[in-house]
Every structure is written in C-alpha cells, then in structure tokens.
UniProtKB/TrEMBL annotation, chains A, B:
Positions of the catalytic residues: H459, C876
Function: Catalyzes the reversible phosphorylation of pyruvate and phosphate.
Listed name of the protein: Pyruvate, phosphate dikinase
Catalytic reaction equation(s): pyruvate + phosphate + ATP = phosphoenolpyruvate + AMP + diphosphate + H(+)
Keywords for the protein's UniProt record, in alphabetical order: ATP-binding, Kinase, Magnesium, Metal-binding, Nucleotide-binding, Pyruvate, Transferase
Residue stretches making up the PEP-utilising enzyme mobile domain: 427-507
Gene3D superfamilies for this protein: 1.20.80.30, ATP-grasp fold, A domain (3.30.1490.20), ATP-grasp fold, B domain (3.30.470.20), Phosphoenolpyruvate-binding domains (3.20.20.60), Phosphohistidine domain (3.50.30.10), Pyruvate Phosphate Dikinase, domain 2 (1.10.189.10)
Lineage: Bacteria, Pseudomonadati, Pseudomonadota, Candidatius Mariprofundia, Mariprofundales
InterPro entries to which the protein is assigned, alphabetical: ATP_grasp_subdomain_1, PEP-util_enz_mobile_dom, PEP_util_AS, PEP_util_C, Phosphohistidine_dom_sf, PPDK_AMP/ATP-bd, Pyruvate_phosphate_dikinase, Pyrv/PenolPyrv_kinase-like_dom
UniProt organism field: Mariprofundus ferrinatatus
Length: 919, 919
C-alpha cells in the first residue's frame, strides 16, 4: 500500500464523507452513503490532489496512481464477482468527474466503460439480451469517443440518424439489436477516422484515458470561464476528483426498475413519500419523458418488497442527513441500489413547513431549522406572485421596484382612479410616466403602480414599497399619453380600463389577467419566526409612515417603528395644499398660519400610530427632504403657465373651458380644484399662484439637492417647522398617556453633522416639552436621537453621543456620501458597468458595503458607545431588510434594524441566523 | 502681611511680569517695566482673583483686601514723599481696569483720584498753577462721577458747554481758571443731584468705590456681550485686575512733556526712532490733535538730556522685549516716566523687514523671526492693493474671490477683450454675468475679472485665483446687458471702455481709477522664506494648470506642482471645439479621432510644464469634472436655437445677418465662427450642431453632478480619454529625458473610491508605458497615485496604498462629502446662518475641519502608511494655502501641501511655524 501522504485513491468504503475538497462533492457523498450502510454499487474516488498533480506535472499522472487504481479495481472484481475485461462475466464501470462545487462545464459521465468486442459477448452471455448489450456498447463508444477522445457528437449523430431514417423509426427504442450492432460498427469506424487509430480495446487503457480526460477538463476553457464567471476561487474548489463506480442496470428485465424520489413532497413539504419510477428502464428514460413514469406509491402493489426497502431507505436518508433528500435509485434483478442523494430543493412554503415538522419529529433542532432557510426566499410567501405554472410572454419589462404581482384595470391619473374605484370598485393599476406626491390618493385605491420612467428610488417605487403594493418602475418601452388616456407599447395600445398584470418581483408587465397565487403567511412561518426572535440579538423594526403601514408592519411581526418619515404624512390630497402654502409663504406669519393648520393633522396621525404600536417604540424622523421636493418641477410649471395663459387668451365661453378641464385636472393637482375655474378671474388667480410657486422653485433650486438645504439644516433655518412637529409628537404622547396607553415615541433628527445642531434643536424640544407638560398636566415620555447618515456624524460620534439618546444609521444617504455616488445618477449611468467590470461586486445601495460604509459605522458605534455604553443604535434604510447587511449589523453590535414592513419577516430570520452563525 | 495664598495686591516691584491671568495684561506689563529698571510711576495691582471673589461673594470685597491696599498706599506715600489726602502735598493716583486680554467694553480710567476740596488747595500750593489744579479737579469729578457713580456724561456736558458758550470759547483750553473753578462747583452739584448725596471727600472712600466699580464692570452687560461675541472663554481671561498708579503730569511747565513713540518706523520697518511729543501737555492733547505734535527727532535739540534718556529707553525696550515697541512717556519737571509699552503694530512690509534685521542685530533668532509674522498677512505683499491712504466709496461690493486690486477699461465679452487688447493695448477688466470655459481667452488679456453672479467657487473665481488675477465675483447689484454693451448699478451706467477699479481682497468695485500700490516681493521676504524652508517639514507645492501658472509658481518658491488639472488645458479657444467634438461623438471612432488631435496639444503642454519645473515633481490629475461641464447650459442652448431659427425664418439679406452677428458672436462661442454664417445653409448647420449638443446635454443631465459620473468613473467608462492623457504624460516625459532634462511627473487619479479602480487604470498605464518605451527607446520616469477626495478612499486607505505610490487629499470634495454639504448650495443658503448661530465656527471650505474631515485624513494617513511606511501624502485644494489648515496637515505628518501659486509664500511660512510650534 502507498502511504497516506501519497494516497490518491479511496474506496467508497474508506473515503471521508466530509472531505469534499479532496474527494469532490459527489465522491464524498458516495463514500458517506456507502459507509452508513446504503447499498451503493461499489466503487472508488481518485482525489482532486491527483488532478492538481497531473496538471502541475504537465499532464502526467502521479507516480503510483495507476497501481492504486488497479488495486481498487481488483477489490471491485472481488466484490462483484466479475472481471474487468473478462470475456464471460465482465465488470463495467462508470467514470465521472466531481469537484467540491457543482460546476456545469465539467465533463459528462462515461458509462459502461470496460466494454470491447470480447466483453460485449460476455454481456450477451450474462444477460441473454443481445439488444441490451449492443445498446450499452454503442452508448459507450459514443460517450468515450466524445469525452475521452474529443470527437464531436455530430460525427456519431449523422450515421445514427441515417439508420433511424432508413428503418423508419422515430425513437431510439424502435431500433432492433441488428440495427444497434450495425451502429456500433459504424461508431468504431468513426473513432478510427477521427482519431487515426482504432478504438482502444484494453479496458485499462480505456480507464486511464478517461481519468486523464476528466483531469484535463478542469483546466479546459469551459470550466475556467465558469469559475471566473461565478467567482469560484481555489479555496472553494480546486481540481476535480474522478469517481469510478460499478455499473448497475434497471433495464435488464421486469425485476429491474429505476426512479427518482423525494423523502417528502417538495411542493408542499408534506411528510409523504414522493417520486416516480419506471420498470425495466434506464435513468435517462425517466428524464426523457418517452414513457410515463408511475407515481412511487404504485410500487407498493407492483413490487411490494422493493417498496418496503425503498421506504426503509427513505427513512434512513432523512435520519442520517436530517434533511429532506432527493435521491436516485435503481433496482437490478431485485436488488435496490441507491445511486445518489442530495438535499431536496423545495419552494419556500415546503422549506418552512418541513423546518417546523423536522423539529417536531426530533430530526433537527430549532437552530438547524432556522439555518435551513435562505431569508430572502421568504419573499415568496409574503407577496402574491404569478402562478408559476403559467407561462406568458411579458409585454414589457421594467425595474422590479416593489415585489408582488397584481392584476387590474389601467387608469392614467389619480383623480380618475379615485372616481372609478368609487363607482365600479374594480381592481385598478395606476399607470403613469412617473408619479408625484400629488398622486398619492391614486396609490391608495390601486392594486399596483406601473411607471415608464424612474428607478428603484423613484417616488413610485419608494411609496409603493412603503405601502407593500407591487410596483414596476421605469418600463421604458411604454409611452404614456395621459390626455388621450392610453399608452403605447410598440404596436400594442392600452386604453383606460384594459386589464394588465404586473409582477413587481421580476419587473414584468403582461397584457390581460395572469393568474396569481396569494401570499401565505402560514402558521408554520409564524412558529419559525417566533423561534427566530428567541435567538436573534437584533430587534427588527419597520419603516412605516402612516397608521395603515403600522398595522401591516405589526402583522409582519415588527417590534416597533424604526423610521416614520413625517414628510410622507404631508402627502395627502387635503394636506399638500397647506404644505405648499407653508413653503410659498414669504413671512414667518404666513408660514406659522399654515403650520398651525398642519399641527392637529399631524398630531392625530401620531396618536393613531402610537396607539397601534403601543407599547412598542415609534421613531419619528422630523422633516428631511429639501422642501422643493414638495413642489412641481420648473418645466411642469412653465408648461402649466403657457396653457393657462393660452386658456385665458382664448376663453370665450364654457365650451372652451370644458375642453381644457381634463388638462387642468391632471396638471393642476390639488392646488386649484377645477370646479372653481368658472371664470377668467379664477384663471388669473391660478396663474398668480403658479407664478408664485415658480418663483419659489427657482429660488430653491440647488445644484446638488442630495447635499443641500435639508434635514436639520431646514430645522434650524425654519425652527417653526420642527417646532410644529415636535409639538405634535409630544401632544400625541400626552393624549395617549392620559388614556393609559403606553407609548415610547422617539424624536429623531435627520442630516446631523455636528453636535451643535442637536444642541440647537434640543433647546426647542425642551421649551416645547415644558409648555406641553404645563398645558396637558402630564410629562410626555420620549427619547431624543440622531440619524447617522452624514459621514461627519460618524466621525463625531463621541460628541453626538453626549447629546443623543440613540443613533440610527441612514445607510442610503451614508452610502451616497461615502462613495460620492448619487444613487439616481449612479444606477442609471456607471454602476451597472462597474458591476460588470468587477470593480464593485455588488450594488452598494442594495448590499451594505461592509468594507467602506460598514467600517465607518463600526467606528461610530465604538466611539458612540465609548461615551454612552450600551447606547441604542440601529439602522434604517433599505439595507435594514437585506440579509447579508443584517449579518453585518449584528457583527458590529447594533441594537436593531428597521426595514419596510413586508421585509420584516426576512429580517427576523436573518437576524436569528446572524446570531446563530456568530455563536 | 497676609500669606501668599490670600495675597490680593502686588506692588509693581513685586508682581510677576508673566502672570497675565492673575494681574491682567496691563498690570503684568507695569510690573515687568518697573522690574527691568524703567522709570514707571510707582503703583500696585489688585488681582483678578480678588475680582472673582468679589463677584462670587455678592459684591463684597474679600477680607483683608482694603488693608493690603492701605499698606500699598503707605508705600506709595513713602516713595513719592506725598500724602494720600494730604492738604499740602497730596498724592494723586489713576485707577484702571486690566484683564488678561484687551477688552473694549471694560471701564475707562479714573485720573487724579485723591482730589477733594482740601487736596485741591494742596495741588495749587505745590504747582502754583490754579488753572492746572482746577482743570485736574473738574476732570476727576466727571470721570469718577461717570465711572464709579454711574452718572451719564450728558449731565456734565450740558453745564460745561453752557459755560463755554457763555464765554465764547470753542476749545477747552480757552477756559480760564475761574471758569474751571465754576465748572468744578457745578459738577459737584450734578453729583449730588444725581446720586442724592455729596461727592465723597474721603480719598479712601473714593478709592474703594473705584475698585468696586472696576470689579463690577467685569460682569456688566457690555463686557459680557463682548466676551460672547469674540468667544473669550474663562481660560483666556477670567476677571479683571485693578491698577492703581501714581499720577504724573506732562503739563506742569516747559520742563514737562508727553509723547508716544515706536522704537522703529512701523510703516517701513526702518531702524530709526519714530514718534512725536508735545511740551507742557497731557497725553490726551497728543491724541486730540488740537496742537500739532513735533517729530521726536526735534527733541534732540529742544531737550537734549531728555532725548538722550529717551534713546536709552528705546534701546532698553527693544533689548528686553526683543520686539519693536510702541510706548508712551511723560516728562514731569525733567524726569522721564515710561507709562506703557506694547509690541508695535506694523504693516507686513515692516514686519518682514524688522524680522530679518532683528535677527541680523542678534536681538532675536530665526525661529523667533519666523513666528513673529502672521502668514496670512503676507497677502499684503503679494498682490497689488488699493493705496491705503485713499478713501473712496465703493460703487458695489461682491465676494472677494481672488485677491489683489486692479484698474482697467470695462469690456463685456472675451472676443472683444482680445480684439481691444490687440488694437489699444490698454488695461482691461472683463465684466460678465458669469464666465464659462469658452471665455478663457478673455481672462488672459484682462487685468481682473468682475462677475455679477456666482460665488467663491464659480468658474471666474477659480480660474482667476489660478492665474493670480484679481477677481470680484457675484457683485449682485450689477446688471449686465452684454448685447447693449453696458451695465447698470442702480442709477449708474457703465459703458464699454469706462474705467473701473476692483479690489479682489475686499470685494469692492469702484468707478474710475483708484490708485494702487504694487506688490513687493522684497529681498527681506525672500530671506525670511528661505529660513522658513529650512525649518518646515512640509514641502509646499503649487496648483498650476498651464506653463504660465508654473512660471509664476516658481517665482513664489513652489517646490513642485502638486495639482495640474488637465481639463483646464482644454479651456482654450482652439481646443474647446475639439473637446466638444469628443463629447458629442456617438462612436468610439469619432471620439478617438478627436482625442488623436488633442494628444499632441496636451503632450506639448506637459513638455513645457515639465521643463519649467525641472527637476521638481509635477503631479498631473487626469480628467476630473463631469463632461457636461464643458457644454453650454440647457437654457443657453434653447435660447440659441430659438434665435437661430428666428434668424433662419427672417433671413432675407445681409442686413438682417449683420444685425444678428454680435448676438451670435457672444452666444455661439468658439463652436461656429460667425464669419462662416454667410448663408442659410450654414445657419442650418449651426442649428444641427446646437441640437446635437442639446441632445447630449440632456443625456448627460445629473441630479447631483457633484456625486456623478466624473473622475475615474469617466476614465473607466471611456478608457480612451485617460489613455490619451496617460500617453501625453509619458511621451512628454520621454521627450524631456532624451534632452537630458530631469523630470518627475506623477499621474494622479481623481474620485477614487476603491482599489479596483486604481488596478483597472494601472492596466492601461502599464500597456501605454510599454508602447511608449518601445517607440521612444527610453523608459519614462513617473509615479502613479490616487486622489483622496472620496470618503470611502480614506476608509480603504490600506488597500489603496497597495496600488498607489502617493496620496493627495482633495479636501474640497472631501469636505463636501464628509459634511454632505454641496459647497455651491451651502455657501448661498445655510452656511452663513450656521456661522451666525455658532453651529459652525468657520466655513469648512475655507478652514479645514480638523475634527471631522481632519480625523478622516488622520486615519487614512495611519492606514496608508501602515502598509507603505513613509508614503508620500499631500493635500491639494484650497485648504492647502490656509495657515491653520497647514498646521493641521503638519500635525498629521503630511509630506506636502499644494495651493494656488500666490499663496505659496503664505504656505511656506505657515509650514515653518507649524514645525516650530510643534518642536
């Protein structure tokens, strides 16, 4: 025997089932199956180390390898009672590659190796089935010719098809033994012609050539390209093993069969035996679909003993692997062989159900159950989706901006959406070029949103995600003509009322109604997530701006609201005009007047939010976006003014007026209800208002709005705006407290870059707190904290921690500032190219950049907690719902993550996994 | 005696001259002067500690203080031979406040304390001068009444003026002894009427009240406001001392005199005695300007002994203080007293000259010489400035965008500027609403630039600073009408050719020619800066984009070019059209064709730069700004198109054409020379070109250009652009090397955020290096480095250091990203308010924010040098020329700073000071 150091070959009975790097995944698995007592056909594995040595030595097999192989073959001969090359009872083997990672592009399997003119006769002798033997022979010649000798399939297919044509048969099974004999002879000629020498007759020569071909394929172009494409590095898989296995046949009579099975139903997770089989058939017959396989249950009556053994195998597999198995078996002459097993691929529902049931059955523990499921996959269960069984061609494709699928009748503007919903009640899909805050009432009555412009951060996308409604954004092929109430997609015209279906998970848009499958927030999922919450260190909060969002978030298991964007509360038809008034006002008095009218509205919002979430915390972020975001665009206003002036010029009677009403209703939004435009003085008034807004839009213009006059900078410039919001929070808290409702509001300041800003705002908070406490007669309970979305805030975390009771990383903005990437610009312009060129592995706006942004966060956490040990520090923004990012948040010791409501379950599972993987 | 612990009063002979916090600046100075043997009138100082105790104890004098004062008064009586309250030979004293820092708003001096009805007679007896005595008496009553008793001056001024009127005298000196006697009596009545009690006769009561009044003034509103306004914290000055000093009089006869003097000429620094005096006069007479003082030299003949003593005093002062002194003296009856001395305030020329001469005279060493001068003040010597003796009212004021003053004839567009310069050769000032790259040829021929829009970072400001030309930007009162060739400022009209003067240091604009003083880069300054270079650790480089800039930078002592912005090289009339072609081209071929034409131009620029700077390093930054910055604005193009189309419609003959030529010449820039617009087909062509550019402008639109598609992101998207620039650098290097010229070019990549970007560019650099080496037959010498202007670059400094040979912090962009402030927006919108509200002490775009941006830089330096010890790391950008920022750069161990040429001397001095203060 060779010593361990230079041992290159392991029998299935001796190889370590865990040694995937050395034996490849397939080899290790065969060893494991053999060693736990499954009836695997005997065989052995040549190591990846042998492969690397072979390649290193300029395609020379390592010393001693052939001898080891010969020793193993002798052992196979002994075990099977057959002889390799034996003319009477020949041993046939399969040869296949197998690296540590499954890798398409590696070579295929060679079956029936060991056949030659002599052993062919032995096979006929043994089976008494000439057709079977010639069939096996011609298959071997082609596979070996192609794989080991590099002959193109074309050379074999041509004579094969010619004979089929001559014989008038369509399927291979129609060929007779004579035909196959003729084919085998032709194939041998092909090999001779293509390689310049005869087909190798010596089985050991066959075996050596096959082994070298497998080794060589590791450095072949296809495999190298694949590894580069999928970033497979040597530490993941290095070299390929070769598995040599005794052939077994399911097609040697009616006491033979072959099949594939799952230990449980992979579609539902139900604990029933699931699979199908064919009597007297080969594995490829099951796959090819020529004969219809029978459901596995039928075997119980057809082959009862075999079925009993299969059931035993099923149970043994689950017990050993603690996982649902997808396995292949062959029955040869009444003997059951297990050829392969692997973890069963299931849809998410089945994964969740089996996770819970495997725990209940004692096969796995709760930790294993939690680690079994990819958090991201839960999305399947949380949103309606297109029926996966239906295949339809999409009409257009945009960006998958908010997940879920929905069907509805197209409507082109928000006002008409509201009207139609009232009258018909039918499901609607709002289709617009892009949406604006003034369209918000249209969102409420629509099932889904579709836009032809804008990206994943467009208004439509962000609002739809917040509401949990499906959205496809920026479907560029669609041309929307609002005034004509129709859209064009190429030659297709969509009119108002036409039915369409959109899939916000894929970005596809379909004409007509496509069946959807409802979301299933199953009992098993609830159980699983309750286990997750027990293990997780991170709390999971939801981003929710209005009471409806909060209710939904609670259903998803949110432990509080981590981000309530108060400006979103302004986006309602009856509120926007007041907000506009506030912005356009030239004096503090005018502004204060508008704010006084907003106060009771916002207070009532908070009361409802706090009640809904009681006793959980609700983090309220004060006004953040630059105020020009509430205003129409300059171009829009100029257009409006041109049309209003034209209207005024041509105004002669109500006919003209009527003709322009629809125009005004869409352009004019909520500012100037169309009913009032009854005479020209009202048109004058509308012009005046538009002009005032236009003036303001120009005054507020910013070169880089992302880095502009926003967040706390607004709060300090216009203290009365923040004062109104602070008062609304504190009065709402008092109102709840007086009714015995436990509330934990947290006031959060956006865009902070220095502790002086926090001190400045705190002065107002304290003054208002005193006033409220006096007038309400009760001390409002609340916390005061800072967003960490400006780089400087991170650098000054120590100083900020002196002022703030909590921090919340706004990783959307922080990522923009850290990279100096404007998200809107980057995603449209150079980020795709950066991903493609491998300069950035991921889109940092989707996957938190641990190396840059994360490093900054880690420093800020360290510095902040250095001053305030155990400080509450969280993250809000889209990364808060992304599993890998959540793992990072766990690793730097954050207190919580906050994400959009529908992603809360995903985050809960990811948080648990982070804790489990860390411990 | 009280023990030291509770000692509140120090005689001038015992107080520590360094104990400014305890004794106040004035008190410590009086002690110091006394102890070095100057003849200071005897006196003592009550400590600031006594003041704080007084205020703490609710305005009660500390125990034992009065006794200490009395002991000191006894000592004064002994020293002077006079008695405090003595009816025959009375001792009079002055009482004045003095804290550690000079602080207007503290109380004035009380003179002649100790006078009452009795001692008045004693004064008359002693001096034989009734008028003198009554004059002293009435002064004392008023000063004491006002300062110690809080009576408004108005109550004294009214009767005083009434008597002057009655007597028909204009000046106080016209009043007789009788008049003054009457006034004194009236003043005593005023005090009685205002305070309800008689004027205190007891000198000790007077003294106690005066001390309490001084102490109280420390917590008075004026003083508190002043300290808040100027950020004077308790560690800078806490409490005020009280100085009690024997009165001496320069107005007791012709053997008396008073004067002020500088030990050297403060206007030039020349080592001559400089000052003036009056015989038989009081200090305030010198200041009041009623009598004309005589130059000090005249005393040599008028009072030779006194002059000899003064010369002795002058020499003693300089020797002791090692600094030019500004001192006050009084001669009483042939005895010279020194009343006060302080460091002389001088203009920069004088400071520089005296610094060098004091070293030559051995009075100070070079280190002291270097530390004497505020680096910023050198600006006075480096730019022409308005003659300080001329006072003119400015016509308008804008932002001081580039320092220096200049006069010239107004011209409103660049083309006309070039033409006029050619024909008349007269000095010009280019006045525009704002400037664009296509105006650059106008900059070259103008003395200065004036714009009515834009800030300190506008095109005009940045380019003018780079060229060292004065610029006033954003002078908002000016309305420019280019087509009519005139501008309005209120009612004033400025026509083309009118003379104006601008001062880029103050931002003022004047009508007509205002005399200016030339810059003086004196020999002394050269000497001083050579000493600075010996001490500094930091090297000082210049930002220079074109060979002319480089030559100027060399004169200022630049040790290399730290930043050559290659895109600035594109800004020339004959180059911009090629750049436009490159940008507008739709195919790689078109783009490459334009680049091929730019290559020889850019290579020639580099050859000249490298030659000029040889053997110093030249750091070349590859293309940085978003390419749309080279294009006209969308609105500009739309306007142009409207006018071109109108021209096409109305084109009937050459008259119309001529009428529109001027319009086109200003709007159309270099793209389409107006001479070619001879027929309508050429107009069509112009329209087509404009439309193509407009399309490109719209395609390139970015929401946040600061965070957009620029720098290395462009270099990776359009590798052919960077390839051209890299090739130009390397071929230029080879060209110089072949001629034996030593060159050290450094290729610098902007906007880097990840080391992958550097690796990507390095591949191109290496390929081009090989090609150039082959074709030129010589290996180009160069370095490869990275800008550090993206936050993530700092966080990834370790990884970047693996790829880069040097780093250069771009603190302009880094500050924007760290604060999330867009400079253009912030400086116009909220930064002034942030400064005012004390949220930010400084504008972080002018003063490097050490706490935030600086902390990030410090980490990046640590991380980068951890990988590459001793790595060359510098800073370019405007902070590189700012003294406090330079000090910070020194403190974190940077290798160099780079700033605009004219600031190089300032930076050199600041670098030396940083090193000296650190050692």
């Amino acid at each position: 025997m060779t010593n361990q150091q230079n041992k290159y070959v392991y029998s299935f009975t001796e190889g370590d089932g865990k040694a995937r790097q050395l034996l490849g995944g397939k080899g290790a698995n065969l060893c494991e199956m053999t060693q736990i007592g499954l009836n695997v056909p005997p065989g052995f594995t040549i190591t990846t180390k042998a492969c690397l040595t072979y390649l290193d030595q300029n395609n020379t097999l390592p010393d001693g390898l052939i001898q080891e192989v010969k020793d193993q073959m002798s052992a196979l001969e002994k075990a099977t009672g057959k002889g390799f090359g034996d003319a009477h009872n020949p041993l046939l083997v399969s040869v296949r590659s197998g690296s540590a990672m499954s890798m398409p592009g590696m070579m295929d399997t060679i079956l029936n190796l060991g056949m030659n003119r002599e052993t062919l006769q032995g096979e006929i002798e043994q089976t008494g089935d000439e057709r079977f033997a010639y069939d096996a022979y011609r298959r071997f010649i082609q596979l070996f010719g192609k794989i080991a000798l590099g002959i193109d399939d074309m050379h074999f297919d041509e004579p094969f098809e010619a004979i089929k044509k001559r014989e008038g048969v369509k399927e291979d099974v129609g060929l007779s033994a004579e035909n196959l004999k003729e084919i085998a002879a032709l194939f041998l000629d092909v090999v001779h012609a293509q390689t310049g020498r005869a087909f190798p007759e010596d089985p050991y020569e066959q075996l050596e050539l096959a082994i070298k071909a497998v080794f060589g394929s590791w450095s072949g172009k296809r495999a190298v390209d694949y590894r580069r494409e999928f970033h497979i590095t040597p530490d993941m898989a290095n070299g390929t093993a070769v598995n040599v296995c005794t052939m077994v046949f399911g097609n040697r009579g009616n006491d033979c069969a072959t099949g594939v099975a799952f230990t449980r139903n992979p579609g539902t997770g139900e604990n029933v035996f699931y699979g199908e089989y064919l009597v007297n058939a080969q594995g490829e017959d099951v796959v090819a679909g020529i004969r219809t396989p029978k459901p596995i249950a039928q075997m119980e009556t057809e082959m009862p003993e075999m079925y009993r053994q299969l059931e035993e195998l099923r149970s043994k597999l689950e017990t050993h692997y603690s996982e649902i198995q997808d396995f292949e078996f062959t029955i040869e002459k009444g003997i059951l062989y297990c050829l392969q097993t692997r973890n069963g691929k299931m849809n998410t529902q089945a994964m969740v159900r089996t996770s819970v049931e495997l725990v209940e059955e004692g096969l796995i523990n709760k930790e294993q159950a939690l680690l079994r499921i990819a958090p991201e996959s839960l999305e399947q269960m949380l949103f309606p989706r297109l029926d996966p069984n239906i295949k339809v061609k999409p009409l257009a494709t945009g960006l998958p901006a908010s997940p879920g699928a929905a069907c509805g009748h197209v409507v082109f503007d928000a006002d008409r959406a509201v009207a139609q919903k009232k009258t018909s009640g039918k499901p609607l899909i709002l289709l617009r070029e892009e949406t604006k805050p003034e369209d918000i009432h249209g969102f409420f009555v629509s099932e889904a949103i579709l836009t032809s412009r804008g990206g994943k951060t467009s208004h439509a996308a962000v609002v739809a995600r917040g509401m949990g409604k499906p959205c496809v954004a920026g479907a560029e092929g669609i041309e929307v003509d609002v005034m004509a109430r129709r859209a064009h997609i190429g030659d297709v015209v969509i009119k108002e009322g036409d039915m369409i279906t959109i899939d916000g998970t894929s970005g596809n848009v379909y004409l007509g109604e496509v069946a959807t499958v409802e979301a299933e927030f199953s009992e098993e999922l609830k159980t699983l997530l309750s286990w997750a919450d027990e293990r997780a260190h991170l709390k999971v909060m939801a981003n929710a701006d209005i009471p409806e969002d909060a209710e939904r978030a609670l259903k998803y298991g949110a432990m509080g609201i981590g981000l309530c964007r108060t400006e979103r509360m302004f986006n309602a038809a009856e509120r926007l005009p007041i907000v506009l008034e506030m912005i356009v006002s030239d004096t503090l008095e005018q502004r204060q007047d508008a704010l006084d009218r907003l106060l009771p509205i916002q207070r009532q919002d908070f009361i409802e939010l706090f009640k809904t979430m009681s006793p959980r915390p609700v983090t309220v972020r004060l006004l953040d976006p630059p105020i020009h975001e509430f205003l129409p665009s300059e171009n829009q206003l100029i257009d409006d003014l041109i049309q209003l002036r034209h209207l005024k010029d041509t105004m002669r009677g109500s006919e003209v007026l009527t003709a322009t009403l629809s125009l005004l209703s869409t352009k004019n939004g909520a500012l100037q209800p169309i009913q009032q435009l009854a005479d020209s003085s009202l048109v004058d008034e509308a012009i005046e208002k538009k002009e005032a807004i236009l003036k303001k839009v120009r005054a507020l213009f910013e070169v880089n709005p992302m880095l502009g006059h926003r967040g706390v900078r607004l709060g300090i410039t216009f203290p009365e705006i923040y004062a109104m919001q602070i008062r609304a929070v504190l009065e709402a808290a008092c109102a709840c407290q007086k009714k015995g409702i436990e509330v934990h509001p947290e006031i959060m300041i956006p865009q902070v870059c220095t502790s002086e800003e926090l001190r400045n705002i705190k002065v107002h908070v304290e003054a208002i707190r005193q006033q409220v406490e006096e007038s309400e007669g009760i001390a409002p309970i609340f916390k005061f904290g800072s967003m960490m979305e400006v780089v400087r805030a991170c650098m000054r975390a120590e100083q900020l921690a002196e002022e703030a009771e909590f921090f919340s990383f706004g990783t959307n903005d922080l990522t923009q500032a850290t990279f100096s990437f404007s998200r809107e610009d980057a995603e449209n312009k150079f980020l795709p190219m950066y991903n493609e060129a491998g300069i950035l592995q991921d889109n940092p706006f989707e996957v938190l950049d641990a190396n840059g942004v994360g490093k900054l966060m880690e420093l800020a956490v360290k510095w902040g907690r250095g001053v305030k040990p155990g400080m509450k520090i969280g993250i809000c923004g889209e990364h808060g719902g992304h599993p890998a990012s959540i793992r990072f948040c766990h690793s730097i010791g954050l207190t919580y993550v906050s994400c959009s409501g529908p992603r809360v379950p995903i985050a809960r599972l990811a948080a648990a996994q982070a804790a489990l993987l860390d411990s």
